[in-house]
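Annual report, structural modelling task.

Input specification for the zinc ion complex:
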Amino acid sequence: MNDSFVYDIPTRLLFGPGALDKLGEETLPGKKALLVMTGGKSAKATGAYDRLLAQLAKAGATVAEFPKVEANPLRPTVMEGAARAKAEGCDFIVALGGGSVMDAAKMIGVMARNPGDLWDYAFTATGGNKRYPNDPLPLVCVTTTAGTGSEIDDGAVISDDDRREKPGFMDHRQFPALSVVDPTLMASVPAHLTAYQGFDALFHSVEGYLAGPRTLMSELYALAAVERIAAHLPRCVSHPDDLEARTQMALANTLGGFVMSTGPLTSEHAIEHALSAFHHALPHGAGLIMVSLAYYKALIGKGACPGRFVRLAQALGRPTATKPEDFLDALAALQRACGVDALKMSDYGIVPDEFPAMAKNARDTLGALFACDPAPLSNDDVVAIYQRSYR
Ligand SMILES: [Zn+2]
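The model returned the following structure:
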């Protein structure tokens, strides 16, 4: 536990049902936006796209579009987006979408202002391990999912398929200038994606609460988020248009972003990133769900912070919890309640022969997270976590 922390989250946050429709009253950080999206189909179908364009026009901004971001965004997409921002003379970026879009938008803004290739600035085995010299273009995020917390943190996760690396790019200059968290945008997210994203938000807070170097501030946010997710995620999955549940999940997710902005995570995220670096179609949240029970069981088996696991079990809705294993039971029950207890690695083409290379990749790419684990995990431990999670 770290009694000292720096609180420096410079993002202005508009939160609540209908928040998007107030964006036009804000002073935007530029005059011409590069609007970053996935294909844009769902944003157009739900009305989010039209609502956003109306607000940008009201605020006096013009827009060039880059509707090309894939799930688990890739390095070439970032470079293409940056080239487009430069060609169009954009002076800020607007992200409309989930974590993939917001993360790509962050790094598009970086590469629109900086020389070379994105991987020059990756801190990985094959990266250039350099800090970029110039401030990114300012960013406005409009999140359409409750999962990554990217709207309120300074991290971005980008994959390079050729290198099989999926690092986080962290820099204080990557905080959005302005973010909109409007739960009315989330009602159209399909049930299975709602669950994957909700568990990503859960693990940001669970890992943040267990991390050795957590701070007084990050643990406050983490417990508040875990309680909300346990109470509301199953409702969001079973009743997608339950606005009260969506609002609580949106808040829990944003709280998870605050957790990551005031303290570290642990190696569960590194272990998952290796899975989806090797198998690009695997959604991040699904990968986390697949390894989670074996991961936490391994930590509990090493005697890591039993009292904190009990407290997490209580936050997950088991007030009478007395032992760390109660956390595993509560986590398994939440996975059943959200219909994600039967996910299989083999459905995504993962084979056990890959596990030693994945364990190495996890440590090479996101080694700092292992240093935050409440008990040390060896490479063999990580391979065993993959093996126990495999089906
Ligand atoms: Zn995550």
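The two ends are 36 Å apart (CA to CA).
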